[in-house]
Amino acid sequence: MKKILIINLRRLGDVYSTAHLISSLHQSEQCQVSMLVYKESLKAAQNIKGVHEIHVIDRQEIATLKANKLFSDGFALELLYNQTHKITCEKWDNILNFSNDTIGAYLTSYFKTATDKVTGIHFSEDRNVVSQNDWELIFNDVLPSLKYSPIHFVDCYHHMMNIPYKKNVENLITNQTHNESAFSNINHIRKNFGEGTTTKVIAIQPLTSDVAKNIPFDTVCDFISALNGTNEFIPLILIAPTEEEREYAERINSAFENKLIVVEADLQAVASVLMNVDLLVTPDTVIKHIADLCDTPLIEVSLGYAPFLKQGTTNSENLILTNKITDRSFNKADFNSTIVPNENFTMRASDIYASVLYYFGTRTSAPHLSENITLYSVAKDNLGITYRPVAGDVDVNTEISRIMTRQSIAAIFEMEQDDNSYVDVLRLGIKAVQTWAEAEKTNITQVMKDLLGTLRSLLQMAENKKHGKEFAMNLGRLLTNCESENLTAIPVLIFRTKLEALGNNSLDKNIKEIESLLYEMKGDIQKILGCIKLLEEAELQAKKDAFAQKRASASHSQAQ
Questions:
Q1: What is the CA radius of gyration of the chain?
Q2: 2-161 maps to CATH 3.60.140.10
């Protein structure tokens, strides 16, 4: 049996997201999975099924010792050593670093002596970044650099481990008493406040840990009023057992003559509630991740800096309602956490209600949404979770680029491409696709010129070191493409990361390695060009099919 340690020094929601991978690991091979988390994320780790042991770092206590001028910094280091010593005393078959930060990388490097294999970014003895495969580069270097992430974090975890995503609805440890109580109480609600089993119970969880991501109070009230206007739905306010959320619920309830149903549940009990409701409406919060693990249908209202493209809801057919992504910033620093950004809030309660109707409807016609609002549906392709715009305002060029970025990554890693993705792109408009493809091919031509110029000056430098300045200039010009929003940014970012990780070798050896990396990038760019050609072929076939259908319709009309 393999012993695996997962390092996830992130927030509650991120720790819960690891449960998808843990489930897949147990279904793929015999293993014993342990976790290393911060103390504040301990409850989330304890709630995940299949975790053998949890190791905890109390960073607040360590930081307190570090900041106290009465004590040597050695006390803080000693505390960290004591809290992680047990890990170093065991033998691990694989240590997985999914923290995506410097601290996680340093700790992983420290634990290397206790394992035969490391997955995830860490450091070598000379402090160079070490990675085992290109998916680690995608996770740690490419995704953070792209404005609109093409790959979900959960899928990156699986690809880094080279295991298939295997869905399981029993990902969390639940309490049988809580399950029975929730089942009984929510059925009682349907029977006494609705029209029996046909009535849908809609759980609304409006608050997050950051006010910038909250659904505004007035919008929540308007949405509840819309639900109350029909016998089809029963709103249920879901809150955490804190004074702040109790006061918020009382404020909402008072606006409805205290007739609303309010359910208070902690992290241990909330899964039992979610398993018995028909739909959850929530912003980006830990409850969203729990709902995904319980296979509870949900509509995610993505506000503020919530990074739904890489950490959104994961289950097929779920919906995400958001401002048009080109109008959004996913950078937390751009938001004032002390106020609700009402000046940027254009989403209405009617948009959320229309999304609810769309979820339970036939989905044959798109709902009408406010200006600059987009509704996405969750789907799956060969790379995993993807988001398809189904209604509202869509920035066509951005969506084409986002979908084709997925196809390009699949091509670069020689994975089977999804033909349905080309169909999705063409639905955005053939003319827009033509314009986008021409722009991308022009960019590819320019990047190839930069690449060949860099390669030429590198070979010249190998013969005469005086060409070093020219090589540096060409290399700098090539690396500026990392900031591009074109498809070529991906292979250039991968090249840059591998370049930065080169060891302290001789100049001649480094020149040979850089030459190899440049040829590798050239091959990746050619694969991207191949994706664009496949899109153009699909576009041509779509035109032929449309023409044939038009002729068939005309012949049928003449026959009549």
A1: 26
A2: no
